[in-house]
Write a structure and sequence with these properties.
alpha/beta; Rossmann fold; 9-stranded mixed sheet; 10 helices; about 20% strand; P-loop_NTPase; ATP-binding; lipid-A 4'-kinase activity; EC 2.7.1.130; lipid metabolism
Length: about 350
């Protein structure tokens, strides 16, 4: 448990540090400059053809971000997969499988072990209704998926913005409206994987939690995470609205990139909580749940897939879905029609 506590501390500490700029960050600027130079060089080598870019036989839509930490990519991927299916596509989803033990490409089913294939891919397999494959190399993973699923006519790459070996037709960046880009610096001085100018080169910027009525740029779109009915992890048919827990304090556990977003959602539902932030992709054990000392526990669906085998009756799950800007899907469909067959990496 000591190592887990240290990871929790380190994760929270880094996020708090990247929200500001101090003398300590200034000392890291030379390293950030080297990181930026390396990233720019790598991208240029792909653009110039010195590093191999593989184009698939079907369009590729990439959903990613330019900052470290959770922004809401997984709910967006699920929502897009459902909407694209309604529009007549047959999507397949590829992911790196963070939090699992993933090397060669492998299929993910709703019954897969999240400790082997990752928590997000299992959630994607359960909620999207699409084939989901994970693997260390995106190109080989997508090719393996297409070989097994010839009906798939569109690949959605989850968190693959910086994986330029896979040619893409549409790029989407998800941004957290609460944290934005922290102190605006590249790693390790800040949370950025790429500079903010990268947003000008993508097809859509989806802002999670943008205030209604606030002005947007032409290629910016809004997204909100919605959900207010909980279900019992041990007995999913058992549902409960927040008022059922009136007068009780729940232990809120969140092993996601931005736990505070989940905690704020619970508070907005009127729930009294004891927040317990955990590192992203935290590997839950029965000891984690025992720490609640008999109180009801509430967690995200991403965390719940790792606890289903040992959770008791006290564990509840709050599922959320992404409410998308109505302009987004028509915009993406137009981009897919226009750009398929052109190099965008």
């Amino acid at each position: 448990m000591a190592s887990t506590s240290f990871r929790e501390f380190l994760s929270c500490w880094l996020q708090s540090q990247w929200a500001r700029f101090t003398t300590w960050h200034a000392l890291l600027l030379p390293l950030a400059a080297l990181f930026g130079l390396a990233a720019a060089l790598r991208r240029s080598l792909y653009r110039l053809g010195w590093l191999t870019v593989t184009r698939l036989s079907v369009p590729v839509l990439v959903v990613g971000n330019i900052a470290v930490g959770g922004t809401g990519k997984t709910p967006l991927v699920i929502a897009l997969a459902r909407r694209l299916r309604e529009a007549g596509y047959h999507p397949g989803i590829v992911s790196r499988g963070y939090g699992g033990v993933v090397g060669l490409p492998r299929a993910v089913s709703p019954q897969s072990d999240p400790l082997q294939v990752g928590d997000e891919p299992v959630l994607l397999a359960r909620a999207s209704g699409c084939p989901v494959w994970v693997g260390r190399a995106r190109v080989q993973t997508a090719q393996a998926l297409l070989a097994q699923h010839p009906e798939v006519d569109l690949i959605i790459s989850d968190d693959g913005l910086q994986h330029y070996a896979l040619a893409r037709d549409v790029e989407i960046v998800v941004v957290d409206a609460q944290r934005w880009f922290g102190n605006g610096q590249l790693l390790p001085a800040g949370p950025l994987r790429e500079p903010t100018w990268r947003l000008q080169t993508v097809d859509a910027v989806v802002i999670n939690g943008w205030l209604p009525g606030a002005p947007l740029k032409r290629h910016e779109f809004t997204m909100r995470l919605m959900g207010e009915v909980l279900y019992n992890l041990r007995n999913p048919a058992l549902k409960a609205r927040p008022e059922v827990f009136a007068g009780q304090t729940l232990v809120a556990m969140a092993g996601i990139g931005h736990p505070e977003r989940f905690f704020e959602h619970l508070r907005n539902l009127g729930l009294a909580i004891l927040p317990r932030p955990l590192p992203d992709h935290h590997r839950f054990t029965p000891a984690d749940l025992e720490e609640a000392a008999g109180r009801p526990i509430v967690m995200t669906e991403k965390d719940a897939v790792k606890c289903a085998g040992f959770a008791g009756d006290e564990v509840w799950v709050l599922p959320v879905c992404a409410e998308l800007d109505p302009r987004l899907l028509p915009h993406l469909l137009d981009k897919l029609r226009i750009h398929h067959g052109s190099e965008t990496a």
